[in-house]
Amino acid sequence: MVVAVLCWGLWRGHVAAVDASHNAAQALNNPALANAAVYRDQLAELQREHDLGNLNDHELQIGQDELRRRLLDDVGHPSDAPIDGPAEAVAAAPLRKPWLWMLAMVLWVPALSVPMYSVLGDPEALDPKAAQQGADHGGEITQEKLMTMATALTRRLQDEPNNVDGWIMLGRVQRAMGRFDEADEALRKALELSRDDNVMVERAEIMAQKNDGNFAGEPWAILQRVLTADPHHLNALLLAGSASFAEGNFRSALRFWERAREEVSPDSPDAPELDRAIAETRDKMGLPPVPGRSSAASAKNPALSVSSISGRVSLVSELADKVSPTDAVFIYATPVAGSRMPVAIVRITAAQLPFDFVLDDSTAMNPSAKLSSMDEVTMRVRISKSGQATPQPGDLGVSVSPVKPGTAGLNLMVREAWR
Asked: Which tens digits make up the pLDDT trace of 301-337?
């Protein structure tokens, strides 16, 4: 197509050159014709002056007579020398058709395009298999990609500081990278520009992630503000239930999750997970399961055991005098890299040690972040005198990494201070 356009341009240029050359040749071979054209222009100029009132009828007549005499003198005056060579050259030059240039473009444009594409283009994209493989792997989000996205968004927001969507996207990218302080700051700036309850809930979860899953303080205050303004806000209900469950407040967790269940349609993909969370909470409270709902206990649900982690938590006798029976014991799993937000957690007291635990999707803090979605996790046990999810001086604990979901018989012995 490019070659066709270029050849058409050459051909049209050639036709125009032929016409111009023909006119030039006529003027060179017959100067009288050229002079006549000049005199016609001068006569027209005299007529315009007359029409404008600059010449009267008598002056117009004198000017016209003078031009006619000069024209007759020029026509009747022979040329001093015949003009043969230049006229023939001008007339003959355009007769050379541009076949040579057209042929060169037909040959060289495609010939040069191939090596240029091999250098500047993406030849592998012409291979359907390679293209399919690229599509398959294009969805993988690596730390390098996240870093590139964060850098690009930061530069963009320097020029567009009022871009709400840009701040939200930057916060989510920073969160995926495990940079919770930066993520919290980005969402805070987004909320300064525009209030969005979903973004507020997301920020509350990030703030809890900074505190190892502890929602005490501002995260809980945010959830309460959202639910006060909209008691049916699904994300806030889900997160409030997860936070209550992680704190061992099963009554509140059940209340929030039951309200959330009313907002979820029966055919929603979130319904089964929410049903299992409700069933697990009712089981811990000694309440009978809701008819028609799925049971949450791993022993009663073999499908969960495939992605569960089970074992025993115990305390070495040398540390027994440093632990009170009422001390809180957190048994939880976190991603190996990035976020330290628990994907599954159980809270007991030191009086229950040694304790046989089971972590699975029913013990998730958030139904959208499940143990079954992880390839590997870090198992952690922390004994806290304060009962807070945030580590404090004097806490005891142990961690093991990596652990694959499906592991059974894991032995977690608390031997030293929490690190």
From this structure: 444 456 788 888 999 888 888 898 889 999 999 988 7
Q: Which residue has the tokens 């495609």?
A: 110
For the entire predicted model, the pTM comes to 0.43
Give the helix/strand (H/E) hosting 335. strand 328-335
Distance (Å, whole) CA 212 – CA 400: 17
- In the sheet with 355-359, reading across from the earlier edge strand, the strands are 355-359, 309-315, 410-414
As given in the structure block, the two tokens for residue 75 are 């026509």
Domains and CATH numbers, the chain: 2-101 (no CATH), 143-300 (1.25.40.10), 304-417 (2.60.40)
The CA distances from residue 391 to 182, 241, 380, 397, in Å, are: 21, 22, 12, 10
Kindly tell me the burial class for residue 385, based on how many C-beta atoms sit within 10 Å of its own C-beta (0-12, 13-18, 19 or more): middle
Give counts: helices (H), strands (E), the chain. Answer: 15, 8
Q: By the 8 A CB rule, do 336 and 402 touch? A: yes
pLDDT tens figures, 164-196 = 999 999 999 888 888 889 999 999 999 999 889
Q: What phi, psi does 230 have (nearest 5°)?
A: -140, 90
CA separation for the pair 381, 408 (Å, rounded): 16
CA distance 287 to 318: 38
Residue with tokens 């949450």: 296
